[in-house]
Amino acid sequence: MKFPTNTALVIIDVQRAIDEAFWSQHGPRNNPGAEENMAAVLKHWRDTKRPVFHIRHDSVHADSTYAPGVETHGFKLEVMPRSDETVIGKAANSAFIGTGLEQMLRDQGVDTLVMMGVITNNSVEATVRHAGNLGFSTYLIEDACFTFAFPDYSGTLRSAQEVHDMSLANMDGEYCQVIKAAQVLDA
């Protein structure tokens, strides 16, 4: 798959916080190889010398695993930002709310986004939907994202894969094109 030269990689909330037991209270996550895929995509992206944007969740709740100042707030080693890469803190689910992300992308002439990160059905889905609504051509790497088991609205426990797949179905075709890491690595 070929991406225009003005394509940016956006990595959403891949912080140590996601490894805390709180997140898997209803069951295990899906895509156990997601971080490996993220690392491979990031290396490939850096090799092509295209822009990388690291989104960091800065929770406003002091007891959150994503609260600034706690050890788990830091990025996971697989996607650790380099000094020449942009880090954007956010307090909402979408990386476009209350941040300068949209303006930074527009200022750099970026109109195509490749996204990956966590949690598929939360900040990833919110950011992808927002990007699509803003008119960005958006691609989501489904095997470089993951989520956790969670009960649905009626109380039925859904596996992480079911939650992930429903989130992808919500986004694909309308807000983004869902792709695999191999498609990025083969570009």
Average residue pLDDT:
96
Number of strands: 8
- Radius of gyration, taken over Cα atoms and rounded to an integer in Å: 15 Å
Major beta-sheet overview: 6 strands, parallel
Label the structural class. alpha/beta
Q: Oligomer, anyone?
A: single chain
Keywords: Hydrolase
InterPro entries: Isochorismatase-like_dom, Isochorismatase-like_hydrls, Isochorismatase-like_sf
Protein name: Isochorismatase
GO molecular function: hydrolase activity
Structural commentary:
With 187 residues, the protein is an alpha/beta fold. The chain has one domain (7-185): 3-Layer(aba) Sandwich (Rossmann fold). Helix content is 28%, strand content 22%. The chain has 5 helices and 8 strands, in the order E-H-E-E-H-E-H-E-E-E-H-E-H.
Give a brief outline of the structure.
With 187 residues, the chain is α/β, with parallel strands linked by helices. It has helices at residues 34-47, 101-107, 120-133, 160-171, 181-185, and strands spanning 7-12, 52-57, 86-90, 112-118, 137-146, 150-151, 157-158, 177-179. The chain is built from 5 helices and 8 strands.
